[in-house]
Each structure stands twice: as C-alpha cells, then as structure tokens.
Amino acid sequence: MDATDAQTACFEAGIKLGSLYHQFAGTPVSPDSAASLATAMEAAIENQPHCESVSVDILPARLDTTHGYDELTGAHMVVEVQVAVESHIVRARMDVEDGYPLMRLVEVRSGTA
Amino acid sequence: MDATDAQTACFEAGIKLGSLYHQFAGTPVSPDSAASLATAMEAAIENQPHCESVSVDILPARLDTTHGYDELTGAHMVVEVQVAVESHIVRARMDVEDGYPLMRLVEVRSGTA
Amino acid sequence: MDATDAQTACFEAGIKLGSLYHQFAGTPVSPDSAASLATAMEAAIENQPHCESVSVDILPARLDTTHGYDELTGAHMVVEVQVAVESHIVRARMDVEDGYPLMRLVEVRSGTA
Amino acid sequence: MDATDAQTACFEAGIKLGSLYHQFAGTPVSPDSAASLATAMEAAIENQPHCESVSVDILPARLDTTHGYDELTGAHMVVEVQVAVESHIVRARMDVEDGYPLMRLVEVRSGTA
Fold this sequence. Notes:
The structure is a homotetramer. The first copy, chain A, is an alpha+beta fold. Chain A is built from two helices and six strands. In chain A, a hairpin with a 2-residue loop joins strand 5 and strand 6. The model of chain A has no long low-confidence stretch (mean pLDDT 95). At the B-C interface, loops of B face loops of C.
C-alpha cells in the first residue's frame, strides 16, 4: 500500500533524527564548545527537505571532562525535530530514558485541525 | 495525537536510512573495497531496533577512480531497508532520481493482511 | 626508532585534519548554514590534544544549491590547523589542488628558533 | 622549514588514524557484526594514499550488549596502521591506556636501513 502523507511525515522525522545522530556522534565536545556544536547541528539538519525546526541541547553536566573534552553521544543531548508534509506535522524527540538514548514520535497532527 | 504503529514503523524506517547515510558518507571506497563496505553497512544497521533487513548495493561503475578511490555518497549506492513494528511492515529505499539521491517509502503494510 | 617531538607534532597535525574531514563530511550545508558549521568544526577540533588553532573556511560559491543545500566534502572548504608538541610547531592545510582536496604539511619549526 | 619525508610519513599516519576514528565512531556494532565492520574499516582506510596496511580489532568483550548492540568508540578497539613515504616507514597505533583511547607513533624508520 502507498504511504499516506502522515506516514511520510513520520518517515521524514526519522530521517532527520537518524541523520543528526550519526553525522555528529563522535565529535569532540567540551562545555565551551557545546553551544556552537548544537547551533551547527540545528542549522545543518534544518537544511533537509520538509524540516521545519530542529532544537539541540547538549548538556554540559553530562560531558566527561576528565581529559578536557568528551566525544558526543546520544547520552549528552536532547533533540527535538518538527517536520511537515502537506498539512501533516510531526514532532519527534531523542532523549535518554533508562540510561539509553531513545528516539520516539511525540506528536502526529494535521495542521488544519 | 499519538502515533499509530504503522506511523511508528515509518518513523523507524526513516531512522535507519538517515543513520546509514550519515554514518558512512565520506568513507574512502574503491571498486575493490565496495563489497566489504556494503556488507558492514548492512550488518551495522540491522543491529538497530525493529530492523528486519538492510540491503546495500555500492555500484563500482558510479565511483570516480581517477585517484584510485572515491568517498562514498548517496550517488554511489542503492539501499533498501525493511522494518517491523507489531504487525506493520515498512520498506523504504534510497536511490538516485534525477541525479540526486532520494529516500522514500516503498510499502506500508500489515503483516497479517 | 622512537619518534622525535617534531615527528610527533606532524603526526598530531595529521590526526586533526583526518578527524575534521571524516567527522563532518556529509553534513548538510547551505550558504546560510556554512558559517555556523565552520565555527563548530573549529571549536570541536581545537578540543583535541596539542591543537593550538583551527581555521575552517567553507566557500558558499563552491556549494551546489540546486536543491537548496549540498553535503560537505573537501571540495567545499579550506582548512588550516596548528599544533604544538614541546617547542615544535606544525602547520598543516587542506585545500583543493587540481580538482581534488589535498592535505599537506605547510611548516615544521621549533618555536624557540 | 619544509617537512622531511619522515615527517610527512608521520603526518600521513596521523591522517589515517584520525580518519578511521571519526568516520566510524558511532556505528552500531554487536559481537556478531564486529568482524565485518573491522574488515570494512581496514579496506576503506587502505585506499588512502601512502597507506600500506591497516589492522582493526574490535573486541566483543568490550561491547555493552545490554540492548543487543553498542555504538563504536575508541574504547572498543585496537588499531594499527603502517604508511610509507619514499623510503620512510611509520607505524602508529590506537589503543586504550588508563581507560582512554590514545593514538601514538610506534616506529619511524627508513626502509633502506
């Protein structure tokens, strides 16, 4: 069966989170450089088709600074993306749950509702 | 509104394609190393939750071998993933269309149908 | 034979350029997002040991904007790094030569000379 | 001062380790997929100029398999590369020391010695 527009919006939201995670995982990051990295991640992924907004929060308190810097993983950040396909709006989120980063759909709605 | 299982399956399919693309884009690749890279990409992404199968075909004829090797982009490959969430099965594909790599849903179906 | 400090400085410079390239290759980038990405790349790699400075210039004129954005490759940027090990300073550079990105050592000197 | 061939060989060795690390960090990996990933990493980096050999050992015992798979970091692997520039041979290695992955030069020699 062909995908509906709402399903396509969910697919697009998944692409954004998967792209963001695997493009930037491993990046050297410290409390001082966290903000510029988060800003660049948002602007990079917002370039992708159907992407309305990306919010990345890298939490300095979660970084191991024993050696001055850490390497970015899902454990360090909270990410939220919003995509739109036709009138369908999808929000998805990555956050740590039970000690592991998890990606999930937060909301699927029709913009005209 | 909460996502349906079928929508979640579409979301998961997007995560797989976005992850695969942005994890491996930029990898040095030649006609000789293309097969081992494709095999590793399949096995890596199949680790992800809900992922039933991944097929990666890196086409040697699309590689620029002027300097002996190229760096992997979406223009070099055809990828297909299949994910399952509850009884819902989603297939998604990345291929070149009109000269640019495009990710799209191929099929959304209920496994019990 | 054990490496000299000058050789170690050259090794460290190579690590920085290789890291920078393969961490960020494939990132979605447009003329509007190029500056934030370059800033984040500089700050990220400057976290690495022995790294004194990193300069990244992503040239908007080199981006293919047919679809609104491009994916970062070595063809789009000029990078210079400076590292120091003991009194030895090394500068290295990545730029396009003959149509292909090339990494090379620019200068190896003793800071006390 | 211009770099010597031995210094250039050290620089090239650094590029290989930095590239390998930041290309593949974050890849989903399990005990079952570790071997195919290691093989692909070797073959990919051996494509790079001046690279004679790459050996990657991903140690299954170091992977966290609580959720079935882990994401590759320097803590999971031992890597050795050998590069040659003119008659100069350089070996470099990445391994965990004091709980953190460290890259270092192992040997710099003239092949004619």
